[in-house]
Amino acid sequence: MAEKGNFDFIYNPIKQKMQELVTPITYTTYIEKLTPVDVDGRFIVLETPTETFAKYITGTLAEKMREAIIKADVGVSDFRLKVEGSDGFAFNAPDEEFAAPPANIDKKYTFDSFVVGKNNEFVYAAALSVADDPAGTYNPLFIYGGTGLGKTHLIQAIANKIVAEKPDLKVIYVTCEQFVNEIIDTMFTSRGPDARDKSIKLRQYYRTADVLIIDDIQFIENKKAVQEEFFHTFNELVSKGKQIVISSDHPPKELTALEERLRTRFSGGLLFDILPPNFETKIAILKRKAFEKKCIVPEDVLTFLAQDSGDDVRTLEGRLTKVIFASKLHEEPISVALARSALSEAVSESGKEEITEESVLSAVTSYYRIARNDIVGKSKKKEVVIPRQICCFLMCELLSLPLISIGKVLGGRDHTTILYSRDKVEEMCRVNEKIAKDVDDIKNIILKK
Fold this sequence. Notes:
Blueprint: H1 8-21, H2 24-29, E1 35-40, E2 43-48, H3 51-72, E3 78-83, E4 91-92, H4 121-132, E5 141-145, H5 151-165, E6 171-175, H6 176-189, H7 195-207, E7 211-215, H8 224-239, E8 243-248, H9 260-267, E9 270-274, H10 279-292, H11 299-306, H12 313-330, H13 336-345, H14 357-368, H15 372-376, H16 382-398, H17 403-409, H18 415-431, H19 433-448
Parallel strand pairs: 2-3, 5-8, 5-9, 6-7, 7-8
Antiparallel strand pairs: 1-2, 3-4
Helix pairs in contact: 1-3, 4-5, 6-7, 10-11, 10-12, 12-13, 14-16, 14-19, 16-18, 17-18, 18-19
């Protein structure tokens, strides 16, 4: 058994998730008293001070603990308990038959919800082939293209399909930003006797994947130590016949700040670019988004929205969202006249959007009478968390920004956190009339400014 304290780097993120799932008293009384003493395969071994503690955790908190472990995404999927001074386990979870699915993929990103056009039909077919037969034909699969064209949708669709149809495979989806932060943390910020253990555990986590999916690989540029680690992880997975999927905003040859050996390996697989959608594909995307929003939009309005909308699918969806909201706000049917008015309200004389990250932040903080620093800070109080999540939701709805950019505005949060907050508010609006009213009121404030 390892020395106590060597595994805090794994247990601390789990504790943070547990803090969201249990009451403060339960957290202080039980969760903080647990000590991580070992990692055994997929299990983190926790030591309790007494038998009574072990019984309460086993009988009452086991499922919440598992949920927290999965959400923390630290390379383990379950836990075992032992009482201090005892050699046996007070709680020993059974060996699992299937690998735990990644907790940071959006289930809405599927192949069925992806709109296929001439601009992306080949990359769609390649992604579907990888999902059907991981490491069979296209390995690595490298998808590149501009912002907002569907790269993240496709690679998460691969993850969702494999998780659903091949649950025995270990699928890891990670943003490059998250990967870089984890590697840098283990290499440069760890101190003391657990530094080596932390590095080894993280390396094992990634190198035991059956499918490794990394989003926005361009963020690895100019980070030599991280590139070195990824190079060896890449080689080991490919040598074992494991699937690697990578997305980027540029093809490998244009990632000039990458080491040549990495560019060569990326180019050694199958490269596919996603091109901007043509006019017909834009119409199809708008129809799909309108369907998802449970709204009927006339053909002439769809045509109007598709014209002069640029290449970014997010901008296209943002135009549709503004029109649908204007229809609800003014209680008018959707028409070209309403669409033209709604879009002009959000556009200044210079042609630039008046709605900005700051205007959304200002509206939310004023409405809830809380400080800006609270929204972008780390407070987990309910009176701050809900406005912060609503802020995420509104930025996603009203702004044509990448999720990673919204995350930076809101205190450097990961784009998966933004996705979670967006979906959480969307769900709350369906079941909570007050939240739905708050969101509509804040939208009204923003659009009327």
